[in-house]
Structure formats: C-alpha cells, structure tokens
Amino acid sequence: MVEPPMKVSKQDLLAINRSIDTVHEMGAKIRKSLQEYSDEHTHDTAWEVQAGVEALEVFGSRWTIEILSTLYIAGPRRFNQLKSLLTGISSRTLSDKLRFLVDEELVIRQVDDGPPVRVDYILSELSLIH
C-alpha cells in the first residue's frame, strides 16, 4: 500500500469514474460494431477464451504488473534502478521476470555498447496497447 494514502478530490474521483465508464461504453460499442462483420460460423469463442487465459497468465503473474507499472511511471530504467523501486523483489526474480517480459515482447532490453556497457529496460509499444 502506498504511504501516505493518495487523497483525490471528489471532483477528480467523479471525473476518473466517468472516464472508466466511457472506456467500458466504447469497448461495448466496438464489440457491437465488429459483431456485424462476424457470424456464428466465423466467430471463434474458443480462441477468444484461450487468448484471455494466455493474457491472464502473463499479467496475473507475480511482479509483472509491478514491473510494467514502474516502467510506465518512471520511464526507461536500468536493472538496479528498477530493483530499488520495487520493494521486496529479489535480483533473481527481477532478472527472470525481465527476461520473460522481453520474450513476451512487452519490454525492450536496450543495450548501449559504451564503455561502459549500459542496459536499459523500456516498455514496448505492445505493452502500451494492452
């Protein structure tokens, strides 16, 4: 939990809730529009369910959201900078998770030859779409 807790004005909270409602409404409109171009024979519900399961495997994994959020908020970071921002994560876990996120193409591992060699981790465009 963030300390101290964030205090948001009533007006801002209402604006945030309106924005969330708008996102939900737009998603429903997009889905309805796309349904016109699909029929029961071309729409593959099993594929959609499997895609959802695969997404949850990635995003539901411990530390994934924390790492992606840190890179989104703080911008590109080196390994030790990330580690210092992620309270409680071990070096091994961070290394494993970064490798996984690079393999999933959600994070870019950018190596600058130097000297010294510098490695930055950056959110990919794909992670911003999700």
Number of strands: 2
Profile the largest sheet: 2 strands, antiparallel
Q: Can you give the mean pLDDT?
A: 85
Give the low-confidence spans.
none
Shape: extended
Please identify the structural class as seen in this structure. Answer: mainly alpha
Q: Order of helices and strands, N to C?
A: HHHHHEEH
Could you give the distance between the termini?
A: 24 Å
Strands side by side in the biggest sheet: 1-2
Q: Supply Rg.
A: 19 Å
Fraction of helical residues: 55-70%
Q: What portion of residues belong to β-strands?
A: 5-15%
Number of helices: 6
What's the short story on this structure?
By secondary structure, this protein is mostly helical. It has helices at residues 10-35, 45-59, 64-74, 79-85, 91-103, 125-129; strands at 107-112, 118-123.
Name its key features.
130 residues; mainly alpha; two-stranded antiparallel ribbon; 2 strands; 9% strand; extended
